[in-house]
Amino acid sequence: MLTNNDQMLDASSLLDSVHGQSPSRRTLLKTTALGVGYAASAGTAVAQTAIKTSSEGLTVGEVMVDVTGFKVPAYVARPAGKTNLPVVLVIQEVFGVHEYIADTARRFAKAGYMAIAPELFARQGDPTKYNVIADLVREVVSKVPDGQVMTDLDAMVAWARANGGDTNKVAVTGFCWGGRITWLYAAHSRNVKAGVAWYGRLVGQASELTPKHPVDVVSAIHGPVLGLYGSADTGIPMDTVERMKVALKTGSAAAQKSEFVVYDGAPHAFHADYRPSYRAEPAADGFKRCVEWFKTHGVA
Q1: One of 233, 271, 290, 297 is an active-site residue; which one?
Q2: Does the annotation mark 19 as catalytic?
Q3: With 0-12 CB in 10 A as exposed, 13-18 as middle and 19+ as buried, what is 265?
Q4: What CATH number should be reported for the domain holding residue 272?
Q5: Which residue has the higher pLDDT, 76 or 4?
Q6: Is the pLDDT of residue 21 over 70?
Q7: Which residue, of 57, 79, 131, 278, has the greatest Cβ tally within 10 A?
């Protein structure tokens, strides 16, 4: 029986064999880095309250996925010894792929999925090195092009296809920054059968790196998206949710099947169980709805 460390090295070695390479020292060292600890800027004082999901029965760890010559690290969790698994892409908050995101991936793996959480800021910087959110956003997050993110996620789907995932059954879900990306990737990729966006921004000013926002891509959505939002979210006004609802009605067929659930009194990041914003009831209900949404739309 593999230990957790053996499982992590096995996953990394499997990726390198796909690319015809032996595991590098850098790759092996990094298997213990992703999904460990919390970004300082996220506020770690309440991290002891976070949910802890066991890796028992799972194969978990980091892989390195080659994307046009750059190796993007990703935390992968999946049921041990199983193949032909439905795939869920788990998209990070602004704080990167730390312990909370890895734990969430394990929750999906426990539900029968190959869960892949790529570190989508890998080229721009390390979120764990920042103590102040504003600095992290300015120096890292704001420099990440949407186009780069879409390409990286496409590469994760390709990796899943080569490593036991059923890419006829692909879902995407993300939190905060990742919630916005969820909507965009559902419009970008025909592989996506369903998406669940947790309090992702819906509108915004177009820029060179972020040319479109979710409200702008409703005509292209390929898989229905469930939006999970909080009525007390000070960063996402409810009028933008209403604006998105109206836009979806005249969008693609999948867009018209998309839905919102707004939790009364819930703040932003209500699913983030290591932060003061955590609200247990909407978080649990949202995760249940998320898995049900995937199953309803053929990702199971």
Answers
A1: 233
A2: no
A3: exposed
A4: 3.40.50.1820
A5: 76
A6: no
A7: 278
The answer to whether residue 213 is catalytic is no
Confidence (pLDDT) at 256: 98
SS (H, E, C) the chain: CCCHHHHHHHHHHHHHHHCCCCCCHHHHHHCCCCCCCCCHHHCHHHHHHCCCCCCCCEEEEEEEEEECCEEEEEEEEEECCCCCEEEEEEECECCECCHHHHHHHHHHHHCCCEEEEECCCCCCCCHHHCCCHHHHHHHCHHHCCHHHHHHHHHHHHHHHHHCCEEEEEEEEEEECHHHHHHHHHHHHCCCEEEEEEECCCCCCCCCCCCCCCHHHCHHHCCCCEEEEEECCCCCCCHHHHHHHHHHHHCCCHHHHCCEEEEECCCCCCCCCCCCCCCCHHHHHHHHHHHHHHHHHCCCC
Question: Is residue 49 very low, low, confident or very high in pLDDT (cuts 50, 70, 90)?
Answer: low
The token pair that represents 111 in the structure block: 């539900």
Q: How many domains does the chain have?
A: 1
Q: String of b and e for 92-125 (b: at least 16 CB within 10 Å)?
A: bbbbbbbbbbbbbbbbbbbbbbbbbbbbbbbeeb
Q: Is 176 a catalytic residue?
A: yes
pLDDT of residue 16: 30
pTM passes above 0.85: yes
Q: What pLDDT band is residue 1 in, cutting at 50, 70 and 90?
A: very low
Among 98, 213, 268, 297, the active-site one is 268
pLDDT in tens, 185-225: 999 999 999 999 999 999 999 999 999 999 999 999 999 99
Domain hosting 152: range is: 4-296
Instruction: Report which of residues 122 and 19 the model is more confident about.
Output: 122
Question: Amino acid letter at 226?
Answer: L
State residue 42's pLDDT score.
Answer: 75
